[in-house]
Each structure stands twice: as structure tokens, then as C-alpha cells.
């Protein structure tokens, strides 16, 4: 998750305007809302329709970063829709709604489309958008998440990226399936989500086709375009396991492969904790430039080469694959709820360390608790409501993981397992809130946990030692020598905060 300070400041500044645009009531004729109602990022997403599928057809030239494409969106209006918005940054050539040309107005990331006829609530609707542009040159509100590289590009980012390569409803609440086809000059590789359904060449161009059949949030759809060594093997559960390593990794290639090739083992470990892996494929992509973060792209996390500069790093592989359950399958209902993603992904690293014998979860908890003084600004950021400017703050990750371990101390191992497995099962392919998680935790544990979660997620300051907070005396007596896993975990979080 990237540290995009310009975006955070801009988003915070516009929070006051969150509900100035009110969605039309279902069943009434009217335009859809230009935002999904997320108080951290009010311009993200749209109201008035639900997308079920994106068909994205692209042509990309690495030499000049020129992208042209046609995206067909299959959607269902949730009201009688007289106009609607799409989130998009590139130049729009035309829009057709149900086969007919539509009127278009474009302002920043907001593409307002007025069809010739009102779209009835519940009907089948198709939006076909033709467009082009040079994504690396398009900046909106001081932000450009598109990453141009020497041999291509990376369309990878959070919480925004899709608007720089396909139009859509850019918020985790509106998930869809994807078909993605990209034509590139022969010799260039294309990676995306799911399963490769075909590759064909004609007149010096090769078209790569990828399909993901499980509901996917827009920011988790990705592209990696360039020179890669691609391998397809059999992973956990007999699923396709697709990896891609940049041809330019040099001396880091061995460490990268020693880490990412353990993904099937990691998926098996995490499945034992959380339940069945939720998607149809597994894998990973390692870039050689342009990124200093990792991102949990659905079915295929992408890693910066920098994670492997000190050798193999399985912690980041665990972190990103834990997100397949927490963040990808169960996504945030609004971005305020980011702790549900990062707390579980970070705590998964602690559980992996426990399995590997490089530090128990309690030893890691004790280290992070004792090593961070009470007056450290770290304790002033609230994981349960960090603010738009702190969505990817250290506290969301590390205090977030500490919260889960403290909860384990309060309610016991089996109750935490029951809560976690029920959460990912009942919320599969949808979204969740912290309040819903707390309600489930109380239901499964039989304990009243409001004060516990208030102390850990919603109150500034360092939670005190005690049974109610789940902080044992051992946290005050932690060894000055941290467990071996800390170096790898810290290196992971140092960069993974941008995912």
C-alpha cells in the first residue's frame, strides 16, 4: 500500500464534502451518486448500479507507454438510472450504453454518462467505453499511481489504480469478475489475475488473455507488462501456480525465487488457519524497478525486488497471501476498516514465525510492546479509525497485529480460530466492518469485548498491562534481543505499508 501523501492530504481535505451528493432513492428516476459514500475517499466509487463483469481489451506499446482500449461493463442498475458515473482518468473517445451512443462529461476522475434512455432498476445494462492515452503522463489531484518501467509498466496500486487503465466503479463494495486481454509487441510478457486463457500472435503483436472468475475489487485487478520469466506449475489444492520474475533481477533472482516459490506451502499453512483458499489460482510477480512495496493483487501478489535485497523473505509472501482472505475475499466496506486487512496479514507473519521456530507470537507481541515507549507517536494513531492520511501507518500493521494477539490472550486460541473461520466464511466475496467483527467476536467468545477493542483500536495511548487488555506481565520483561523473525517482519512492513 503506497505512501501517496498527495492523495492522503487531498482526500482528507475533501472529507467535508462526503455526503453533498446524495444517491437517488431506489425506484425513483434520477442519476447515480458520483461516490460510494466512503468518508475517507468520498470520490471513489459510484452509486446507482452494480457491476458484475468487466471485459477489458487493450493494446499497449512499451516504447512510448501508449495505451488504447475498449472496456465493456456488464451492470445492473439499482434504481431507475437517468445518468451514472464511472471512475476514469484517460482520454475517452466514445461511450455506448446498451448499444446506443451516450452523452459524456469528463472532470478529473469523474466520467458522467447520460444514456439516451433511462435504465430500469434491475435490468441488464452494458456500458462500452473506448479510450486511449499515456497513463504515466496523466495526473489527477497530484496523484499518478501508474508505474512506467524501462521495458513496460506496472498497473499496481492501492487504494487507486484502475482508473488509469480501465473505467469502472472503483470501490471494494462493487466487486466483479474480469476478462483481460492485452496486445503487446512480440517478446513482451503480460501478467494479470486468475488463469491464462490463451496467448496468440499476429503481425508482430502478441495478445495475452487472463480471466478471474471470482468477485474482485477494482484495485486488485492488475497488469505487469515487460520482460519476465513466466512459469506455470501446480500449486496448493492442485490449482495453477503462476510466477513471473523480471529478467533484470540480477543477483536478487535467487532470493526472490527462494521466497515466492514457497507460495504453495504458505497457502497450505494459511488454509489450515483460515479455511479453504478462496480463489482459482495462486502465484506471484517480482518486479525489478518502479516499486518499493508489495500488493496483494487477487491470485497473484506483486513484490518489489527490494524485499529480497538481504536474502530470502518469506514473511512478505505470508503477508500478501494472507490478504487473499483478508482484503481480497473479505474486503473493507469502507477504507476506515483497513485494520481488518492489515491486522490479520501482519499477525499471520507472527503465526508463520511461530511455526518456523523464529519467535512465538507472544515473544513478538512482547517485543513490539516493550520496544515502543508510551510517549511514542505510534500509540496516537488509532487502527480502528486512523484517518485518510494514516491508512497505511505502522500502527495499523503492528498495533493491528498486537490487537489480535491480545484478543487471543483474552478469549483463548479456539475462540479466535472460530471467529476467524466464521468471518472469512460468512463474508466471503463481500465486505465487512470492524463493528461487525466485534459483534462476531463477542458472539463466538461469549465475552463482552467493547472495552477491549476500545482500548486497542479506538483510544490513543499504549494499552495498559492487565487481563482486560490481554497484555501480560511478560510484555514488560521482554528481552533486549528481539526474536529472529523481527528483522524480516520489520523489513516487510517497512515497504509493505505501501500496499
UniProtKB/TrEMBL annotation:
It comes from Saccharopolyspora taberi. Its EC number is 3.4.11.2. Keywords: Hydrolase, Metal-binding, Metalloprotease, Protease, Signal, Zinc. Its cofactor is Zn(2+). Coiled coil: none annotated. This is Aminopeptidase N. Residues 1-26 form the signal peptide. Belongs to the peptidase M1 family. Transmembrane segments: none annotated. It comes from the Bacteria. It catalyses: Release of an N-terminal amino acid, Xaa-|-Yaa- from a peptide, amide or arylamide. Xaa is preferably Ala, but may be most amino acids including Pro (slow action). When a terminal hydrophobic residue is followed by a prolyl residue, the two may be released as an intact Xaa-Pro dipeptide.
Amino acid at each position: 500500500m503506497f505512501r501517496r501523501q498527495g492523495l492522503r492530504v487531498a482526500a482528507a481535505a475533501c472529507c467535508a464534502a462526503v455526503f453533498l451528493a446524495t444517491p437517488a432513492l431506489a425506484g425513483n428516476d434520477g442519476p447515480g451518486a458520483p461516490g460510494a459514500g466512503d468518508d475517507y475517499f468520498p470520490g471513489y466509487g459510484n452509486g446507482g448500479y452494480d457491476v458484475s463483469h468487466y471485459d477489458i481489451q487493450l493494446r499497449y506499446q512499451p516504447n512510448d507507454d501508449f495505451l488504447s482500449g475498449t472496456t465493456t461493463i456488464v451492470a445492473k442498475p439499482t434504481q431507475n438510472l437517468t445518468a451514472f458515473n464511472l471512475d476514469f482518468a484517460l482520454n475517452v473517445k466514445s461511450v455506448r450504453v446498451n448499444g446506443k451512443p451516450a452523452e459524456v462529461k469528463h472532470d478529473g476522475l469523474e466520467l458522467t454518462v447520460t444514456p439516451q434512455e433511462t435504465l430500469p432498476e434491475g435490468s441488464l445494462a452494458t456500458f462500452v467505453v473506448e479510450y486511449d492515452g499515456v497513463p504515466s503522463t496523466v495526473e489527477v489531484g497530484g496523484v499518478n499511481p501508474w508505474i512506467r518501467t524501462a521495458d513496460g509498466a506496472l498497473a499496481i496500486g492501492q487504494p487507486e489504480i484502475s482508473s488509469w487503465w480501465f473505467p469502472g466503479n472503483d470501490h471494494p463494495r462493487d466487486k466483479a469478475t474480469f476478462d483481460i486481454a492485452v496486445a503487446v509487441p512480440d517478446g513482451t510478457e503480460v501478467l494479470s489475475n486468475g488463469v491464462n486463457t490463451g496467448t496468440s500472435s499476429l503481425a508482430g503483436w502478441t495478445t495475452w488473455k487472463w480471466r478471474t472468475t471470482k468477485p474482485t475489487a477494482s484495485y486488485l485487478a492488475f497488469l505487469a507488462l515487460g520482460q519476465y520469466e513466466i512459469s506455470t506449475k501446480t500449486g496448493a489444492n492442485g490449482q495453477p501456480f503462476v510466477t513471473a520474475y523480471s529478467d533484470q533481477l540480477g543477483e536478487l533472482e535467487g532470493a526472490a525465487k527462494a521466497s515466492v516459490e514457497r507460495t504453495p506451502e504458505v497457502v497450505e499453512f494459511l488454509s489450515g488457519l483460515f479455511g479453504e483458499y478462496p480463489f482459482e489460482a495462486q502465484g506471484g510477480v517480482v518486479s525489478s524497478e518502479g516499486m518499493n512495496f508489495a500488493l496483494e493483487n487477487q491470485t497473484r501478489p506483486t513484490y518489489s525486488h527490494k524485499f529480497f535485497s538481504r536474502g530470502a523473505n518469506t514473511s512478505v509472501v505470508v503477508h500478501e497471501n494472507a490478504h487473499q482472505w483478508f482484503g481480497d475475499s473479505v474486503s473493507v466496506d469502507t477504507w476506515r476498516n483497513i485494520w481488518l486487512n492489515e491486522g490479520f496479514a501482519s499477525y499471520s507473519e507472527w503465526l508463520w514465525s511461530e511455526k518456523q521456530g523464529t519467535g512465538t507470537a507472544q515473544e513478538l507481541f512482547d517485543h513490539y510492546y516493550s520496544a515502543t515507549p508510551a510517549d511514542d507517536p505510534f500509540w496516537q494513531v488509532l487502527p480502528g479509525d486512523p484517518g485518510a492520511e494514516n491508512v497505511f501507518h505502522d500502527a495499523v500493521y503492528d498495533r493491528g497485529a498486537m490487537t489480535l494477539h491480545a484478543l487471543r490472550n483474552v478469549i483463548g486460541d479456539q475462540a479466535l480460530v472460530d471467529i476467524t473461520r466464521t468471518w472469512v466464511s460468512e463474508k466471503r466475496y463481500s465486505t465487512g466492518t470492524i463493528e461487525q467483527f466485534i459483534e462476531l467476536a463477542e458472539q463466538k467468545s461469549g465475552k463482552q469485548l467493547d472495552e477491549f477493542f476500545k482500548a486497542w483500536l479506538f483510544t490513543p495511548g499504549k494499552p495498559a498491562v492487565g487481563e482486560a487488555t490481554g497484555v501480560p506481565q511478560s510484555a514488560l520483561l521482554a528481552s533486549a534481543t528481539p526474536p529472529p523473525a523481527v528483522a524480516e517482519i520489520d523489513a516487510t512492513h517497512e515497504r509493505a505499508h505501501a500496499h
